[in-house]
Amino acid sequence: MRKTVRITACSTLALAAAFVLPLACADSGSTSPVNSSGSGSMVVRLTDAPFSSDSVRNVNIFVVRVDARQSDADSATTDRDLSDDSLSMGGWKTVASPNAAFDLLSLQNGVSQTLGQTTLAAGTYSGFRLVIDPTRSSVTLKDGTVLTGTSNPSVTFPSAARSGIKIVLSQPVQIVSGTTTNLLVDFDVNNSFVQRGNSIEKNGLLFKPVIHATITNTALTNATIKFINATESTLNLLQNGSSLTGASNLAFGQSSACTSVAAATPALSVVTAGSTTPLPGFTTTLAAGNSFDIVAFPNATGGVSFATFGNAFTPTAGDAGLRIFNATTVPTGFDVYVTAVGAPLGTAAVTNVVSANGSSFVSVPAGTSEIRLTSTGGSTVLVDLSSQAFTAGQNATLIIAPPASGSLSPRAFLVTGC
């Protein structure tokens, strides 16, 4: 007789739905720490596993609300300060207020019920409670008999109009700014109702609630990727053999949508459009909570190589971030100049980016700029990209690509980061 409540959360707590905020990027070589600022989302849903009793048709629990607080709370503490006016006395914040009865036996075999939604400040939350109204809760037997706190036979609920039940967490809930956390609350009905005497029909039930919860936050398990094609072939990025949304039929100079994948087991492969054979040499290492660019580019042997870059960089206030990747096979490097449109070259923003390598990020002015490329140490402009827009606080990567067929001049295109 297990019932399950699912709660999803970001840096916001929600009982029915989740608020998703922009996901911050972390360094590509490390997992991102829990952000102590901002807010995220939490969603709470209710579900149930099969009930073992053959005598019971419905278990209706009236859920007033779900509360959370940063410090842990024992069973006695969760049953105090239950009035709306005294919530803050115990450091509680309401994260859902369904004020409705739920038949736990209808929430089985993967079925869940959303209870509500709200926003929580980023941080760690160790105390959760389910507040029910015993006077509006009941158990209905298969013969139609309804057991309440005052019927005969009865369900022995707590005598108060409201009861706070501790939710035992598998681990503290980390609310990460800009992400969604799922809290699956398992209302263990089978162990929460104890038969009194020889039978339920004659002696009723005793309510001894047992509620556990497990937590999943994709910010702590997933990475965000963008796939960039700098080859002449049309490519598809696959996950478990199927094309990812927004990552199909990518021609030269195109990039995929930003996609969240499991960092430890992304199960990614790259194929040429129209083929099911993965291109060789594609491997990538991702870190949970981070954002990455994956670049496909031609190599000197005529095949396709791949490079993965983390997007962690915070530009100077008011500026944008720019990184250069050299996807050509030319033996000399490139200098890159970022200036106002029509201005002299001045000093290079990035120097000597060599084949199959990327630069570090640099800060560049937000707004419209002109990007020009020269050979390392040279003054002859090889590529001129005018009117390139940079957004303050946003990172971008400039891909220097091999010449088009019949040309000797390299090409370049700009890709915004996730």
Summarize the structure in words:
This protein has 418 residues and is mainly β. The protein has 3 domains: 3-209, no CATH class; 223-312; 315-418, Sandwich (Immunoglobulin-like), CATH 2.60.40.2890. It has 4 helices and 35 strands. It has helices at 75-78, 189-192, 200-203, 218-221; strands at residues 3-9, 13-14, 39-48, 56-69, 93-96, 100-103, 112-121, 123-125, 127-132, 138-141, 146-147, 155-156, 163-166, 168-169, 173-175, 180-187, 193-195, 205-207, 211-217, 222-229, 235-239, 242-243, 259-262, 268-272, 291-298, 304-310, 319-326, 334-339, 350-353, 357-358, 362-365, 367-375, 383-390, 395-401, 411-416. The strands form 8 sheets. Strands 1, 2, 3, 7, 14, 16 and 19 form a 7-stranded mixed beta sheet that branches. Strands 4, 5, 6, 9, 10, 11 and 13 form a 7-stranded antiparallel beta sheet that branches. A hairpin with a 3-residue loop joins β1 and β2 (13-14). Mean pLDDT is 86; it is low at 1-36.
Q: What's the overall average pLDDT, rounded?
A: 86
Structural class: mainly beta
* Largest sheet, strands/sense/barrel: 7 strands, mixed
Residue runs with pLDDT of under 50 for 5 or more positions: 1-36
Number of strands: 35
**Anisotropy-based shape:** elongated
Helix content range? under 10%
User: What is the number of domains?
Assistant: 3
DSSP strand content: over 45%
Computed CA radius of gyration, to the nearest angstrom: 29 Å
| Tally of helical segments | 4
Report, as a whole number of angstroms, the end-to-end distance: 44 Å
